[in-house]
């Protein structure tokens, strides 16, 4: 559990980030499958004194445990009486898209596609030769510079994992209206220039239903 910002779940090997399961959405961690199961439910406790995740067995007659394998995979095992042994029920490394930074900045990972990584619409690989070879970590860049003209618009992306919340700020005093603000670091792959371009575009928006404008970066 990483608490450097809004809490989220990582898997590390030493100091190297391998997998990111995302922050708590109020129902689940955003990178975990949203499939219900008859074995257990889980919850997330987050307040000024403590931060932890807890599992609740639906059927107390079932024995279940979680362990980290030597390969670095978190696994849930259930005891099966007829087999007199522990049998795998869930492996958290669901697919390669859980790997941290696999597709780089502005990249999209889709396990149902081959290759799994692609660039967002309007973007292209920064290093085409490496991209074709299967090294997508360099990420993508805009095909054309952002100029906030008539052809620029906002696009909705569904079914995505919530962004990395490290180095973010939050205030629990807002009750259910929790706020998270991303702070760009000097090593941010998005970069300050991209952030300023987005802010300039938002500044030109005019809409009567726009209540409060705080700004964002893509």
UniProtKB/TrEMBL annotation:
GO biological process: recognition of pollen
The keyword S-adenosyl-L-methionine belongs to this UniProt entry's keyword annotation: no
UniProt entry keywords in alphabetical sequence: Disulfide bond, Signal, Transferase
SUPFAM superfamilies in the cross-refs: Protein kinase-like (PK-like)
Boundaries of every S-locus glycoprotein domain copy: 20-125
Gene3D superfamilies xrefs: Phosphorylase Kinase, domain 1
Any one GO molecular-function label of the UniProt entry: transferase activity
Protein name per its UniProtKB record: S-locus glycoprotein domain-containing protein
Taxonomic source organism: Helianthus annuus
